[in-house]
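User: I've been trying to design a sequence by hand for this structure and keep getting stuck. Would you show me what you'd pick, starting by listing the structure so we're on the same page?

Assistant: Good idea, let's start from the same input. This is the structure you sent:
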């Protein structure tokens, strides 16, 4: 067991010696210093140049965004900006670059319209 361990160490030392000798032989040739930021920019340019712009895919998906600012049950605290957040979310989902939902496939139901009958009605409407 001990001899196996010693032979693994000897092999690792031999590999490191080979690597260092290769590095020393290459060190005699001048190497251009590479600026990491410049390398990243060049890589980004080459990747962008190889890509052909593709139009965003609008998949078959729908969204029903429901929000309530206040509740009938006074034990539940009101939620500030719930309606505004729901409308902003609907806008983001409809954006072809972000949510990629079709503009007619996102429906928002907020505040006094966000009752069970209206939500069930929305789920059964032909926009789906």
């Amino acid at each position: 067991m001990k001899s196996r361990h010693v032979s693994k160490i000897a092999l690792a030392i031999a590999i490191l010696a080979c690597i260092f000798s290769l590095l020393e032989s290459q060190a005699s040739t001048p190497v251009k210093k590479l600026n990491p930021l410049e390398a990243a920019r060049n890589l980004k340019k080459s990747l962008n140049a190889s890509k052909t712009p593709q139009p965003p895919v609008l998949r078959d998906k729908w969204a029903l965004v429901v929000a309530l600012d206040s509740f009938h049950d006074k034990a539940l605290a009101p939620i500030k900006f719930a309606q505004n957040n729901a409308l902003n979310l609907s806008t983001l989902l409809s954006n072809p670059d972000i949510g990629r939902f079709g503009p007619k496939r996102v429906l928002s139901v907020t505040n006094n319209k966000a009752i069970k009958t209206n939500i069930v009605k929305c789920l059964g409407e032909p926009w789906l």
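That's my pick for every position. To get oriented when you compare it with your attempt: The CA atoms of residues 33 and 99 lie 43 Å apart. Strands lie at 63-67, 106-110.
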